[in-house]
Design brief:
7-stranded mixed β-sheet; 5-stranded mixed β-sheet; 11 helices; alpha/beta; 37% helix; globular
Length: 305
């Protein structure tokens, strides 16, 4: 995912001289190719994320297309006021990039676990919030965000063990990608956790449970029609995310169902009002907090029984 972001940004910079990368003292190794080609369009502000967003806003209001990059919470929660007051309020073309969504940096502890960011960024008016599931979606998201007015939020991870590029499903902001058809339940995921959703669908099929799998890569604006169709044709929905269920993907789907008066069996998987105080790698934490493939299977079996 991260390499997909860098490669696509480098391509974009070659196509559009207004594209610029701003970072807060991170990513030098992975950005070497970009820096070599576009040294005048790379700015390291140091360990000063608030300044990163303030400077990015000024540049964007002067016509630049900015990508502001840092680790998880550092590019969002540390400079939330600047994202809200400076960039978003003024509709600046600043794309905030979170490298390390969810439990990506699980071994570094709670300070590096990005598990509230989706909920918080969804609450800001005018933001486009995107959490791609693999390299394919990441590459398309970068291009789409660069062409979209206003503030974008791109939540990526390091590596994911899936590649959806060969499925022939196009990418469009605000339009979910249905990765697998199913009749009994729809499992909606966002981000790299979709890999576990697909693994769960395989396991459920062995129990004669047919699961539709949806990558809801865009959280704002969310794909209302895909949610409506899931409720109407499968009758049960499970959402899965490495984020608080309150206000995140589960919250977004629940809002749609309630506001449209849709009656559907529904379950949200994610962090339920707790901080991720445990340290471990990403898959360990997915298991510990009940969002891995086995937990998804258990939730689906209980919901559809």
């Amino acid at each position: 995912m991260r390499d997909g972001f860098v490669d696509t940004l480098t391509e974009l910079a070659g196509e559009d001289e207004r594209v610029m990368l701003v970072t807060a003292d991170l990513g030098f190794g992975i950005f070497n190719k970009y820096i070599e080609q576009f040294p005048s369009r790379f700015l390291n502000v140091g360990v000063a994320e608030q300044n990163m967003i303030g400077i990015s806003t000024g540049l964007a209001l002067d016509g630049w297309k900015i990508f502001a990059y840092s680790i998880g919470n550092f590019s969002t929660l540390r400079c939330l006021e600047q994202i809200r007051n400076d960039a978003s309020y003024h509709g600046a073309n600043v794309n905030v990039v979170c490298s390390g969504g969810g439990f990506t940096y699980g071994n570094l502890g709670m300070s590096h676990h990005a598990t509230e960011d989706i909920s918080i960024m969804r609450a800001l008016p005018g933001l486009t919030v995107v959490a791609p599931c693999d390299r394919f979606e990441t590459r398309h998201a970068v291009r789409a965000l660069a062409a979209t007015p206003g503030v974008g939020y791109l939540r990526i991870e390091k590596q994911v063990p899936i590649d959806t590029s060969g499925l022939g499903i196009p990418y469009q902001l605000g339009k979910a990608r249905r990765l697998r058809e199913g009749r009994d339940v729809t499992i909606i995921g966002c981000g790299g956790i979709v890999a576990d959703v697909l693994a769960a669908a395989d396991q459920l099929l062995k129990r004669n449970i047919s699961a539709r799998v949806v990558s809801m890569h865009t959280l704002t604006p969310v794909d209302v029609e895909e949610i409506r169709d899931a409720a109407a044709t499968t009758g049960a929905i499970v959402t899965v995310e490495e984020n608080q269920v309150s206000g995140g993907l589960g919250g977004a789907v629940a809002e749609v169902c309630v506001e449209m008066g849709i009656g559907v069996k529904f379950r949200r998987l994610g962090l339920a009002g707790v901080y991720s105080a445990i340290v471990g790698d990403q898959q360990f934490l997915r298991n510990y907090y009940g969002v891995d493939a086995s937990a998804i299977c258990a939730a689906v079996r209980e919901l559809t029984s």
